[in-house]
């Protein structure tokens, strides 16, 4: 307990030091103000760009001001926590086949977003750090209340990060820094005491570049800075609980969980200084789990042999848990449909028997895709399995995938 009350400057300096010691690579302070982007958020929701993410509309009022997250909030500490920025998957391994010796005889890899590469759920990594920072704030200023958030609270973290001087919002909507690029998470600590603020980041360093807008595989940007989440691969493979619309399945390519395209093409992520920080960050971000045996790639065939219990055991502590088994198998089937050959039919056949209609439907689609790409007809046992499914299937979602090809 301090003998005399420390000045706001001293509290801010202590928070900054704590944050760096916890592995954060940037720390800025913003005043708690009304959200300047609130009306844009409303428009964005009304346009349908939030897709299934109804939590925006459900908690809309709370987005107006940080006091919606911490009553009486006066300052927001905004933090950046790095994840790997090293080179992406070697192109020759993307979606390729490799003998895996696990009994299935095939291994097709899908790509996973780099924020997952440590294998740990970043909420689990960052929350304890925020809690420790909150505890030290409380020690310095016992009357203060502090709340740490990462992602889940009703606050637009990139807006407040810009206000705290961390960087600008790129045309891909993400927060970018000249020294750090964009391969980092944002997190905030809200406090109900006033701390000295940093200068907001006013300049925009995208210039005439449109690389992210041009490269997006699904054309998800309706304009610079405006994303239609319903078309974003990240949304479709992580957040969506539904069967991915047919019109977008091809464009998903080999992304089985998340997407980094609009960051990989960004010139600000190619700076050598950024890579050095990334190397430290990936070490600091924790362990390598069994869920992620090789960074950036996930073996797909074996997912189809996991029942709910074994899926839980393998993925419970990883970012992939968010999609649950049905979502990850849906994604894996789409990727196999986009990239696979007859060698991939056996996991997909197993998927036809799955208890989840969404998995069955995605597997039907994938089998037809593989069949359409092949000069040979589908093997008899596969055609028979599809016929059998047609006879017994009761779910409209699956029947719809079977139907157009019936004649
Ligand atoms: C919902 C969500 C998603 C959704 C929607 C994404 C989105 N762009 O909104 C989906 C599932 C698609 C998604 C994907 C990803 N996400 Co996300 N996501 C969020 C979350 C939880 C909320 C974002 C939000 O508020 N969206 C609402 C919309 C309305 O915000 P907006 O797009 O910025 O819209 C504003 C602009 O359009 C602006 N606007 C309109 N015109 C103009 C003009 C100008 C000049 C400007 C500046 C602004 C502007 O007005 C709107 C309101 O302010 C945040 C965490 C958080 N609480 O902030 C993480 C967050 C943004 N995601 C993050 C990450 C890492 C990702 C992915 C990279 C993951 C991946 N690899 O798959 C992708 C990137 C896709 C992309 N290009 O955005 C990080 C980003 C870190 C960073 N450096 O910025 C965050 C901050 C999570 C975190 N805590 O670290 N995400
Ligand atoms: S994450 Fe992928 S799909 Fe989503 S906006 Fe970026 S490039 Fe497009
Ligand atoms: S790719 Fe270009 S336009 Fe897009 S965020 Fe990066 S600098 Fe800005």
How confident overall, as mean pLDDT? 90
Q: What is the N-to-C order of secondary-structure elements (H for helix, E for strand)?
A: HEHHEEHEHEEEHEEHHEHHEHHHHHH
Largest sheet: 4 strands, antiparallel
Unreliable sequence segments: 90-104, 279-293
Total number of domains = 2
Bound chemical compounds: cobalamin, iron/sulfur cluster
Q: Tell me the strand order in the biggest sheet.
A: 1-2-7-4
Radius of gyration: 23 Å
Got a strand count? Answer: 11
% residues in beta strands: 5-15%
Q: Which structural class best describes the helix and strand composition?
A: alpha+beta
CA-based shape: elongated
Number of helices: 16
Estimated helix fraction? 25-40%
| End-to-end C-alpha gap | 78 Å
Brief synopsis:
The chain has 407 residues and is of the alpha+beta class.
Give a structural overview:
This protein is α+β, with helices and mostly antiparallel strands and 407 residues long. The protein folds into 2 domains: 1-288, no CATH class; 300-407. Helix content is 38%, strand content 11%. The chain has 16 helices and 11 strands. Strands 1-2-7-4 form a 4-stranded antiparallel β-sheet, with helices on both faces. Strands 10-3-11 form a 3-stranded mixed β-sheet. Strands 5-6 form a two-stranded antiparallel sheet. β8 and β9 form a beta hairpin. α1 runs antiparallel to α4, α12 runs parallel beside α14 (357-373) and α14 (357-373) packs parallel to α16. The radius of gyration is 23 Å and the shape is elongated. The model is unreliable at 90-104 and 279-293 (pLDDT under 50). Residues 172, 216-218, 220, 227, 232-234, 259, 261-262 line the site of one iron/sulfur cluster (SF4).
């Amino acid at each position: 307990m301090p003998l005399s009350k420390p000045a706001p400057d001293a509290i801010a300096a202590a928070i900054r030091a704590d944050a760096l010691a916890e592995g954060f690579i940037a720390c800025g302070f913003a005043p708690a103000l009304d959200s300047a982007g609130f009306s844009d958020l409303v428009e964005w929701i009304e346009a349908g760009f939030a897709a299934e993410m109804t939590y925006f509309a459900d908690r809309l009022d709370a987005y107006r001001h940080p006091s919606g997250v911490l009553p009486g909030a006066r300052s927001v500490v905004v933090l950046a926590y790095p994840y790997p920025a090293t080179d992406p998957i070697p192109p020759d391994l993307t979606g390729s086949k490799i003998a895996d010796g696990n009994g299935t005889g095939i291994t097709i890899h899908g790509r996973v977003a780099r924020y997952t590469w440590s294998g740990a759920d970043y909420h689990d990594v960052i929350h304890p750090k925020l809690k420790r920072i909150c505890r030290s704030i409380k020690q310095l200023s016992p009357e203060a209340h502090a709340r740490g958030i990462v992602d889940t609270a009703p606050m637009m973290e990139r807006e407040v990060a810009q206000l705290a001087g961390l960087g600008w919002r790129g045309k891909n909507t993400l927060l970018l820094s000249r020294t750090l690029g964009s391969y980092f998470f944002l997190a905030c600590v809200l406090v109900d005491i006033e701390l000295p603020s940093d200068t907001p980041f006013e300049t925009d360093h995208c210039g005439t570049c449109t690389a992210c807008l041009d490269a997006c595989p699904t054309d998800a940007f309706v304009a610079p800075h405006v994303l239609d989440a319903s078309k974003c691969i990240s949304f479709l493979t992580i957040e969506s609980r539904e069967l991915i619309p047919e019109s977008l399945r091809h464009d998903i390519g080999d992304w089985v969980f998340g997407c980094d395209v609009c960051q990989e093409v960004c010139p600000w992520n190619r700076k050598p200084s950024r890579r050095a920080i990334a190397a430290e960050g990936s070490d600091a971000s924790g362990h390598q789990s069994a869920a992620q045996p090789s960074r950036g790639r996930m073996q797909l065939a074996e997912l189809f042999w996991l029942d709910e219990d074994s899926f839980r055991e393998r993925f419970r502590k990883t970012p992939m848990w968010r999609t649950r088994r049905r979502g990850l198998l849906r994604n894996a089937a789409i990727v196999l449909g986009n990239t696979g050959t007859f060698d991939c039919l056996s996991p997909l056949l197993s998927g036809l028997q799955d208890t989840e209609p969404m998995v069955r439907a995605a597997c039907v689609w994938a089998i037809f895709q593989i069949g359409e790409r092949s000069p040979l007809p589908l093997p008899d046992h596969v055609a028979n399995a599809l016929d059998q499914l047609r006879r017994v299937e009761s779910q409209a979602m699956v029947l719809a995938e079977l139907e157009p090809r019936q004649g």
